[in-house]
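S1.2 Input.
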Amino acid sequence: MEKRIYPTPIESIASPEPYARQSFDDPLEAVAALKRLYERNTQFLRDSFKHLAAGNVDRRFRAYYPEVSVVTASFAQIDTRLAYGHVPAPGIYATTVTRPDLFERYLVDQLRLIMRNHGVPVTVAESETPIPVHFAFLEGTHVDGAFADSIRRPLRDIFDVPDLNGTDDQIANGTFEPIPGEPLPLAPFTAQRIDYSLHRLAHYTATSPQHFQNFVLFTNYQFYVDEFCAHARELMAKGGGGYASFIEPGNVVTHAGSQEPEGGTPLVRLPQMPAYHLTKPGHGGITMVNIGVGPSNAKTITDHIAVLRPHAWLMLGHCAGLRNTQALGDYVLAHAYVREDHVLDDDLPVWVPIPPLAEVQVALQEAVAEVTGFSGYDLKRIMRTGTVATIDNRNWELREQRGPVQRLSQSRAIALDMESATIAANGFRFRVPYGTLLCVSDKPLHGELKLPGMATEFYKRQVAQHLTIGMRAVEKLAEMPPERLHSRKLRSFSETAFQ
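S1.3 Output.
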């Protein structure tokens, strides 16, 4: 029997030189320091990885995430109109930071508000959380399989790897319990949780996280994406119309004033949830994601987009109309949700109400009126406001119907789909303003289903108008100051200072 040889244990750890803590009164300088520290530490891990093939490794390599913290000692009242930018009580608050290059504008804004509202500096230091080597590589990095095979030890012996025990949503869910003596959370997500989602976004959407815009449209039909792409290309050919570029899966970019895409790699096969970005400076444009069908996809993509801290996301899609007075092509503006999707039950109990947000509701209703030309009482002929139910069983009609139909009737539901309540609930959970505008595409309770040919004409006629309404609503939301859009309605008793 062949004798098995085990690697000798690694006892020493190599790390970058310790980083001296620094305090800053200027948010720009604080973020610049975060960028330098992050780049130094991730570069150390990348360089160390390159040296692995040289021979046996006799040490472990470790580098830490940057950390930003603030200390307050006063209960002084801040501007109570603000939903974020302040801590609830005296104490030490901290968060780990990743990709400060990607989040630079966000970090500057959040730190500026804290400094202004509390009159205190912020401190930049190294945290005690190691950076997993997987998250240290630059976007687009390819590790050759032969190189990986040449490593003679398990990767976990040499580097820190993602720790799922510390990659969770306890802070956002309101279930985080700090250890006595440790700082309280300053932000809703930790660095490793953000890194995990950034990698998932690139995988699911085939576009870089840096291309995502602050306003996101979700849809469950490719027809909407086709219309969005056609509209975006037309805008680019005409000079952009206020937008700077159009980015498609594979990071293929068409710049304003051009008809020819450049850069990136056009895809032969689309990813699971392809994303398309109509960009503006400062991420002020629109991202559209085809999430496909079902609440699982809806939860997955919103779990990850949430770490980018968008200003709003809206659901545009088709639904089953539940009222006999509705007609195919009518619109449904959700002002309440029945959650029978079940994918968020462990994170957000079903007894938690998902309220309508006035700013989003008004923007959507005004957009419908402007695009359709209807207003006032006449608007009610084509749009109904009410409860939308979301279910996880697409073929619910094939089961015994008395139970579901009774619940739908008692809840006053006017429409049924498989994504909207999930997207709204995750918006509520992650403090991302949300809204839903659906289009009635069939009425199964009343035997009205689209016949062949009817479907094609319906899509041609209605999708373009529906998408125009969604984009008009986004433009209205983008005109609002962020502090108005990110209102206090989504904040719990004890919130993080970062939005």
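S1.4 Remarks. Residues 206-489 form a domain with the Rossmann fold fold (CATH 3.40.50.1580).
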